[in-house]
Write a structure and sequence with these properties.
The protein is an all-alpha fold. It has a domain at 10-67. The protein is built from five helices and no strands. The chain has helices spanning 10-17, 19-23, 29-41, 43-63, 70-91. The longest helix has 22 residues, at 70-91. The protein is flat and about 40 Å long. The N and C termini lie far apart (48 Å). InterPro entries: Anit_sigma_mycothiol_RsrA, Znf_put. It comes from Microlunatus capsulatus. It holds the Pfam family zf-HC2.
Length: 92
């Protein structure tokens, strides 16, 4: 079985699950450094990262000037607030 055919390792799954947070600069420095190191050492993940980055760039070029309707923004912010309240309640 070649490297490209092997099922992803736990490290790869973890990295790929966080790739959008990494691209959005939403991770702390230690997590970002961990992902950078993994990408430097893992060609299949680097290839997947490059695809994600290219898709993001294409969407930004095609839709970058579009703004979400204010009702959608309000709805999303409300759902985020509810999710945060639920998370805080579960931690207590």
């Amino acid at each position: 079985m070649s490297d490209l055919q092997k099922p992803p390792s736990t490290d790869c799954e973890h990295m790929l699950a966080r790739v959008h947070e990494f691209l959005d600069h939403e991770l702390d420095t230690a997590s970002s450094d961990e992902i950078r190191a993994h990408l430097a050492a893992c060609e299949p993940c680097l290839d997947q990262f490059d695809v994600e980055q290219a898709v993001r760039s294409l969407v930004n070029r095609c839709c970058g000037g579009d703004k979400a309707p204010s009702a959608l923004r309000t709805k999303v912010l409300g759902q985020l607030a509810a999710a945060q309240a639920t998370a805080h309640a579960q931690q207590a």
